[in-house]
């Protein structure tokens, strides 16, 4: 009988764990919800992501093979248009697909990607 109790408890534990989001998922959900409630700006939201995740290669002096300085809002805004991305599918596709994924170390988290999307939909606010 004790063995059945342990198995039952173990089964309940597995079900409970499967039903809950991880801390990162909760943080991303809360962050995305917060972004939807306000306007996203270059200085307050997008530039900090670039400084942490992109600037090592795409800084004021881009490091090969990077050719773009992504520390200037107008440059980043231009790369939302795939026609301006001569080597790829455009910025959002690079952030969200495996087609020339950026950053190359695995990409941005959902909240950081949402900052770029929301910045665009809010009209590329400074």
Describe the SSE topology:
Elements: H1 2-19, H2 23-36, H3 42-53, H4 55-58, H5 73-78, H6 91-96, H7 110-121
**Major β-sheet profile:** none
Structure class: mainly alpha
Radius of gyration: 20 Å
Topology order in helix (H) and strand (E) letters: HHHHHHH
> How far is the first residue's CA from the last residue's CA?
66 Å
Shape: globular
Task: Let me know the average pLDDT.
Answer: 82
pLDDT below 50 for ≥5 consecutive residues: which ranges? 9-23
User: How much helical structure, as a percent, in the residues?
Assistant: 55-70%
Total beta strands: 0
Number of helices: 7
- What is the beta-strand fraction? under 5%
Task: Explain what you see.
This protein has 126 residues and is mainly alpha-helical. It has a domain at 38-121. It is built from 7 helices and no strands. It has helices at 2-19, 23-36, 42-53, 55-58, 73-78, 91-96, 110-121. Helix 2 packs parallel to helix 7 and helix 3 packs across helix 7 (110-121). The longest helix has 18 residues, at 2-19. It is globular, with a radius of gyration of 20 Å. 12% of the residues are buried. Residues 9-23 have low confidence and may be disordered.
Task: List the main descriptive attributes of the protein structure presented here.
globular; 126 residues; mainly alpha
Q: Nutshell version of this structure?
A:
The protein is mainly alpha-helical and 126 residues long.
């Amino acid at each position: 009988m004790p063995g059945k109790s342990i198995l039952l408890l173990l089964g309940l534990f597995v079900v409970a764990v499967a039903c809950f989001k991880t801390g990162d998922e909760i943080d991303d959900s809360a962050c995305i919800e917060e972004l939807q409630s306000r306007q996203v700006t270059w200085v307050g939201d997008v530039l900090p992501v670039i400084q942490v995740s992109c600037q090592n290669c795409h800084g004021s002096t881009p490091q090969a093979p990077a050719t773009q300085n992504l520390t200037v809002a107008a440059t980043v805004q231009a790369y939302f248009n795939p026609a301006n991305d001569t080597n790829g599918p455009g910025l959002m596709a690079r952030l969200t697909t495996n087609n020339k994924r950026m950053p190359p170390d695995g990409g941005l988290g959902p909240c950081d990607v949402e900052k770029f999307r929301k910045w665009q939909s809010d009209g590329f606010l400074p």
